[in-house]
Amino acid sequence: MNLQSLDIGIVVGYLVLTMIIGFLVSPHANKNLDSYFLGGKRIPWYILGISNASGMFDITGTMWFVSILFVYGLKSSWLLWIWPIWNQVILMVFLAAWLRRSNAMTGAEWLKTRFGENRGGRLSHIIVVVFAIISVIGFIAYTFAGIGKFATSLFPWDLTTVIGSSVISSENIYALLIMGFTSIYTIKGGMYSVVATEIFQFLVMTISCFVVGVIAMNLVTPEQLNAVIPAGWKDLFFGWKLNLEWSNLIPSVKNKISADGYEFFSIIFMIMVFKGIFVSIAGPVPSYDMQRILATKSPRDAARMTGFTSLVLFIPRFFMVAGFTVLVLVYFSPKLNAMGPDIDFEMILPYAVSNFVPTGLLGILLAGLIAAFMSTYSAYVNAGPAYFVNDVYKKFINPKATNERYIRMSYLVSFVVVAIGIIFGFFINSIDSVTKWIVSSLYGGYTAANVLKWIWWRFNGYGYFWGMFSGLLVSLIIPILLPDISALNTFPIILLISSIGSVAGSLLTEADNEEVLKKFYLTVRPWGFWNPIYEKVKAEHPEFQKNTDFKRDMFNCVVGIAWQMSMVVMPIYLVIHEYQSLYITATIFLITSFLLKIYWYDRLKD
Predict the structure, then answer these.
(1) Is the CB of residue 322 less than 8 Å from the CB of residue 66?
(2) Burial annotation 375-384 (CB, 10 A radius, 16+ → b, else e)
């Protein structure tokens, strides 16, 4: 790509302004760990909601979304359930408030309210710290792979470097430079710098999204699109099989579908729903999403923040995704077809950026896409070290240190976590493969123990440790022993082993301290199998009322999933000029919004 001076100036100006914002707010973070990692719990919920949305708007995920929309059409909207994206709905409806009632700093510290501080509680504390560090390193490696591929295809300079006998590719040099730049203000300013820069970055990203969508709507007609897509590409719903016949258009796409294992789409859908239910009720993994929840002022604000995240994220993001996809389908299909079996579908997004955005707007778009990377990356860099500094160093190693020393330790741990994540990033060949490992294998090891902690009073700290340990171990071993098995198909295996570890670890050891369980139940008020504890709490607090909101919460979850899904497909229908489907989906959005207002928002309480 030949970047003009105006485009380069816009990108450089964006980077400089981001650094200035990050450093201007950094003094607010240096008071104590609560200020550094949670912003002192003084940041308004809607600001945290935008920050959370910005953190989820990552460039690597956007490249993946464009590639799956290209291949699977509207049916790709269901593939987002692999994460699953509707975990935000379950957080919004009830889990965010449950988490925030602990008043903790990290997910590991939150476990103290559930299991206490006996040996089982300490083991649960340690294992979630280990999981948090591994997951953050995995996500840093994931972002490293994405930003390197993206930058190399867009920037014209070859930065390949030879050090001794080793050749460091231009892709890796770009990733190192951008990640290093982002790390400076993130490590310096903690949560305040992250949130302040993410608000600015989200504004730039949103402008970029609408620029791309409008360009695509003006350059692609329905007739042009219909000529390059198979029958059924525009259909949201599916039968037993996928039935997208690419053989006469781009035969390599059929090979991609076969390699993904998604031809029998109904089976994949059932696995995704099964996985999604358990993963979502387990709650957020210990990363920036949980950190934003714990940083809110109150449980009610935590719920509102999570709902607002979905509201501001999906429509602009998928307007961009749809825009890029249709541009490539119409104008680049012949070139992609000529590549034969060697198409790198993850490069579809950079192809589109390189060829369809005019000077000036290109600079804004590049700034927006870099912002998408920086916001996600900075969120992880700020979240991960909190678990080591607060839950290991402060708790076990140096509990009487000064705030200044804790902040310096946060700098050091952040640097180490980033360095390890980058090292792993050098060995990632496919964004798709690491995406599926994170959301299926790694999350599979997290799920069983974190579902049981909410719903079963007899589940104890030992059960949590053995459930997490067995799940984490299997999630790391299976890709090595069974490399040919799809990551999604390994989820039930990992969940089963982790469940056995969780239940056996609990039943073979004593129940947790009754006082800890009563305090947890009285404070958090979850529904589930808590009757023995409820009877004891009721005897001591006759005014206490059991949580009877299960049916309403489930109703709101179903409505919320439809609400969120409508925000994913509405912008896609708009870009591809499918106005009848757009009107139907917009109606569903309005109806579900009305229902959520009555049965969720109006009934929120701390």
Answers:
(1) no
(2) bbbbbbbbbb
